[in-house]
Amino acid sequence: MPNSSEESANITLTAPLRRAVGLLNTLTLWLGVGVVIATMLVVVANMLLRPFQHPIQGTFELMGFGGAIITAFALGYSQERKSHIAVTILFDLMGPKTQRVADAAGKLLCVAFFGFTAYKLTLLGLNLRETGEVSETLRFVTYPVAFCVALGFFSLTLSLFIDALDDLAAMREVN
């Protein structure tokens, strides 16, 4: 429960954004689950068909693309749920105010880094689409994979941004 009108105002401002980003994170998570199931089916089918001299061509490529999408689509949801590993050795030595400042600064740096990563992946996807780049074995167009990975990093960036806003509001509350 909010302690003051300022904290209440912050929660009111970030709540719609948090809900929208939460929906995006849930959507990408379930899309990632679909990719996990699809990759498992391909691997099992490949293992079952291999003894009969009918392996599935391009299985290695599909696993690589699938792994990239699965990982990227889990990023935002994991950040939202605070499932990532955090090493707090230095943080434990700091006071509460310094911890808040360091945490907010770290999240803002991550917003910049992962936002830039999402941007560059989007540019890569556009370039791959423009040049018509395809995979080696299956001749599969690769730009959708770049866009999917960019979307995963974008959802991570949005989750970090909301967390940073909450940290900054909490610091303002203390002051």
SSE map:
Layout: H1 5-49, H2 59-80, H3 96-131, H4 143-174
What does this structure look like?
The protein has 175 residues and is mostly helical. It has one domain (5-174). It is built from four helices and no strands. Helix 1 (5-49) packs antiparallel against helix 2 (59-80). Mean pLDDT is 90; it is low at 1-7.
- Compute the number of helices: 4
Oligomerization category of the chains in this entry? single chain
What is the CA-atom radius of gyration, in angstroms? 21 Å
- Sketch the topology as an H/E string, one letter per element: HHHH
Percent range for helical residues?
over 70%
Tally of structural domains: 1
Structural class, please? Answer: mainly alpha
- Categorize the overall geometry: elongated
What average pLDDT do the residues reach? 90
| Binned strand content | under 5%
Largest sheet: none
Overall strand count: 0
- How far is the first residue's CA from the last residue's CA? 19 Å
* Unreliably modeled segments: 1-7
Primary descriptors:
mainly alpha; 175 residues; single chain
Summarize the structure in short.
The chain is built from four helices and no strands.
